[in-house]
């Protein structure tokens, strides 16, 4: 592609940003205005028109998926793979640095990433050792404390000691935790950044090397960088690198994880001479969708203020559907999906977005019932599943015997008669000696400090790991995984679990071997073994991709993980008070604004058609709740909305204080003596709500969601229903 072609599909401000001479740039613009597109074209421009080597460019994206897409897009624009280019998330890039410079970073060569689940286990163990009971000192609270401090770049040593009991206790947990991680060679997510930031500060020569290597740094989704990420960026950029930051203050949705919108305001002070570019045309959504998004976000204060317009079509109204309950909501969504597919659209043009992971199960069930293939991002993540974490733990131990978190997970999984007492003894010994659990166990066996039985179980576990580790070099990754699954007995172990669960776990272990078989290393560094590379990518990737990546499937994800993406058809499910906005946020104006930004992110994912759905009653987390429609729906200009009814679509101004559901009679229930949404009682199944009726007269099929018995389809004349 030549220069004019590169600029061909860009509007004037976009083209200007792409072809600007080297300098700091802040591209501040609303959703769908082409920020990411500009970033990718800018890289292509630098490489192709300015003769900059891909080797000199670092691009930071928000997810690993976005990184892969960026690389693919660049390859398309340039016609060649931009080898040497560094593109990844802050965490991924930091990990790469630490892997290369493990010695300078004072880490063992095979350090492992500690994910949030393992982090909690480790903290629980520390609490035990410090005699902190879980009721008064929940491990999650300590985890938040530690993570929040790391996100701020603050180590235990930097915390100013106070006499406050809470602070003192948290600090002592933090200290112990840092030490335990160091001994075991474990690095949590916050630590990746903190450690690599320190790596540069403590090694000016190394820093200089990277500063010279990367004169161009480009960051997408800049509004969601936290303190330590921003500090990392500033140190790397130093005085000589050019930084392009791309962001939208209205889409800052990770405040709860330490992201700082203020970094945007701070940018032109920290990077003098920054040219700020605003993009005002939206290319993604219809005018109606855009108007709705603007209507919602206008209710936030303290925005940097941007205008967005589109030259696109007005488009269809946004459909609002009130389900009687979450089942009905899910069924409605699936019926609309069927219609959309019936028009010849692909399934992957559809996304169902929700506020909370717990909402996905009912949606999944409805999709399964209708055999609609779907894929979930986040939630039930492949690499987060119990059986997968177990096999990963064995692989981790093969790489690094001192990985305490991995050892804790599998020393007695599958059960091999190593009891809690033995493990406690090993822990205690490890603490006293300041060594890892593995070396503690070794020493205790040599010193005969374990009972004969315990010693023999522990040593057979250790020799199992050792046997497998001896084959790391000689076997291919999937052969190794297969062997590990066989020798450890994990498959039989999980297969013992009753019913489908056990079978699903076995299937997942098989799937794991397939994942290993097709695994392509992410790093071109020959010193890194494929196993180490795989383990890192499994930890970094958790949640972003499911196994069936290539099937045409409907996408399900939380609103948070939808950032940056776009889909022709979008459903936002559960737009009701207390769910969205989340009940934890309604009392707090700052959090409420973040929820509103999340609504803005959700609405602006839709290109052609948007559905908003909610449930008048919802059973979630085992509790029934009755919520009204979300305030964010009320903030959408009413002319953009259209209420959808079962069987018929009526356009009328929305009334929010609608009559109870049972008053909304549908044609199909006429003459039956019952109405949709009505509560009825059945002699066996008890009470429930009528969801759907097919046919008429005594043979009509009637679908009822019973409070205790779930959804049943019954024939009216035999059902012996009574109105409640
Ligand atoms: P978000 O804030 O959601 O991340 P964004 O600002 O990064 O959005 P992009 O994803 O880059 O926006 O672009 C949105 C859509 O508009 C994409 O499909 C992109 O290809 C298209 N687009 C952007 N600019 C143009 C243009 N000048 N001409 C045609 N299409 C464009
Ligand atoms: Mg983007």
UniProtKB/TrEMBL annotation:
Recorded catalytic reaction(s): these are: ATP + H2O = ADP + phosphate + H(+); Couples ATP hydrolysis with the unwinding of duplex DNA by translocating in the 3'-5' direction
Q: Name one Pfam family in it.
A: PcrA_UvrD_tudor
Q: Domain UvrD-like helicase C-terminal, which positions? A: 287-564
- Provide the binding site for ATP: 29-36
Chain coiled-coil ranges: none
- Using the record's annotation, list all stretches that form the UvrD-like helicase ATP-binding domain: 8-286
List the CDD domains. Answer: DEXQc_UvrD (cd17932), SF1_C_UvrD (cd18807)
- Enzyme Commission numbers on file: 5.6.2.4
GO molecular function terms attached to this record: helicase activity
Keywords for this protein:
ATP-binding, DNA-binding, Helicase, Hydrolase, Isomerase, Nucleotide-binding
Q: Which NCBIfam families match?
A: PRK11773.1 (NF008743)
PANTHER family per the UniProt record, alphabetical: ATP-DEPENDENT DNA HELICASE SRS2, UVRD / RECB / PCRA DNA HELICASE FAMILY MEMBER
Q: What family does the Swiss-Prot or TrEMBL record give for this protein? A: Belongs to the helicase family. UvrD subfamily.
The name under which this protein is listed is: DNA 3'-5' helicase
């Amino acid at each position: 592609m030549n220069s004019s072609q590169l600029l061909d599909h860009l509007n004037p401000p976009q083209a200007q940003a792409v072809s600007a001479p080297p300098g700091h740039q802040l591209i501040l613009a609303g959703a769908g205005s082409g920020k990411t597109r500009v970033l990718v074209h800018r890289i292509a421009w630098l490489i192709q028109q300015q003769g900059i080597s891909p080797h000199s460019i670092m691009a930071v994206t928000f997810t690993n998926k976005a990184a892969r897409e960026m690389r693919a897009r660049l390859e398309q624009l340039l016609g060649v793979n931009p080898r040497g280019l560094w593109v990844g998330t802050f965490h991924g890039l930091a990990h790469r640095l630490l892997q290369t410079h493990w010695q300078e970073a004072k880490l063992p060569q095979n350090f492992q990433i500690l994910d949030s689940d393992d982090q909690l286990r480790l903290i629980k163990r520390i609490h035990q050792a410090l005699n902190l009971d879980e009721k008064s000192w929940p491990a999650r609270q300590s985890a938040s404390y530690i993570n929040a401090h790391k996100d701020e770049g603050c180590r235990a040593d930097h915390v100013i000691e106070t006499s406050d009991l809470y602070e003192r206790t948290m600090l002592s947990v933090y200290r112990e935790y840092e030490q335990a991680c160091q001994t075991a060679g474990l690095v949590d997510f916050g630590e990746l950044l903190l450690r690599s930031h320190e790596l540069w500060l403590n090694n000016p020569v190394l820093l200089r090397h990277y500063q010279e290597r990367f004169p161009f740094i480009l960051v997408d989704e800049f509004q969601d960088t936290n303190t330590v990420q921003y500090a990392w960026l500033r140190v790397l950029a130093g005085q000589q690198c050019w930084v392009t930051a791309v962001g939208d203050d209205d889409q800052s949705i990770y405040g709860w994880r330490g992201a700082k919108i203020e970094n945007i305001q701070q940018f032109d002070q920290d990077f003098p001479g920054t040219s700020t570019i605003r993009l005002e045309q939206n290319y993604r959504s219809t005018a109606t969708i855009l108007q709705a998004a603007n209507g919602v976000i206008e209710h936030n204060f303290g925005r940097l203020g941007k205008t967005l317009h589109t030259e696109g079509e007005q488009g269809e109204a946004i459909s609002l559907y009130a389900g009687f309950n979450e089942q009905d909501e899910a069924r409605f969504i699936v019926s609309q999906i069927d219609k959309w597919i019936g028009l010849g659209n692909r399934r992957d043009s559809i996304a169902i977005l929700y506020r909370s992971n717990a909402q996905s199960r009912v949606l999944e069930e409805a999709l399964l019932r209708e055999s609609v293939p779907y894929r979930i991002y986040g939630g039930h993540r492949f690499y987060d599943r119990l059986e997968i974490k177990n096999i990963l733990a064995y692989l981790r131990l093969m790489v690094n015997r001192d990985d305490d978190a991995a050892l804790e997970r599998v020393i007695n999984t599958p059960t091999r008669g190593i009891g809690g007492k033995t493990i406690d003894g090993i822990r205690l010994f490890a603490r006293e000696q300041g060594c890892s659990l593995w070396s503690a166990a070794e020493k205790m066996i040599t010193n005969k400090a374990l009972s004969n039985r315990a010693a023999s179980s522990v040593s057979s576990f250790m020799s199992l790991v050792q046997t497998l580790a001896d084959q790391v070099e000689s076997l291919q990754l999937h052969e190794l995984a297969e062997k590990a699954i066989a020798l450890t007995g994990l498959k039989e172990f999980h297969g013992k679990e009753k019913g489908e669960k056990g079978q699903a776990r076995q299937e997942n272990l098989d799937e794991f071997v397939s994942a290993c078989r097709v695994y392509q290393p992410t790093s071109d560094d020959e010193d890194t073994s494929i196993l180490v590379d795989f383990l890192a990518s499994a930890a970094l990737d958790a949640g972003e991709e499911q196994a069936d990546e290539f099937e045409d499937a409907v996408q399900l994800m939380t609103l948070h993980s939808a950032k940056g993406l776009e889909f022709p058809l979008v459903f936002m499910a559960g737009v009701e008070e207390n769910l969205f906005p989340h009940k934890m946020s309604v009392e707090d104006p700052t959090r409420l604004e973040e929820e509103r930004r999340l609504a803005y992110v959700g609405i602006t994912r839709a290109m052609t058609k948007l559905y908003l759905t909610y449930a008048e009653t919802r059973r979630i987390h085992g509790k029934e709740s009755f919520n009204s429609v979300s305030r964010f729906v009320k903030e959408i200009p009413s002319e953009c909305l259209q209420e959808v009814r079962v069987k018929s679509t009526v356009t009328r101004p929305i009334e929010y204080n609608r009559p109870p559901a049972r008053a909304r009679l549908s044609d199909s229930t006429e003459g039956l003596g019952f109405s949709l949404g009505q509560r009825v009682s059945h002699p066996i199944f008890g009470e429930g709500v009528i969801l759907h009726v097919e046919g008429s007269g005594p043979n009509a099929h009637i679908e009822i969601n019973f409070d205790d018995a779930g959804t049943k389809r019954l024939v009216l004349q035999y059902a012996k229903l009574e109105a409640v």
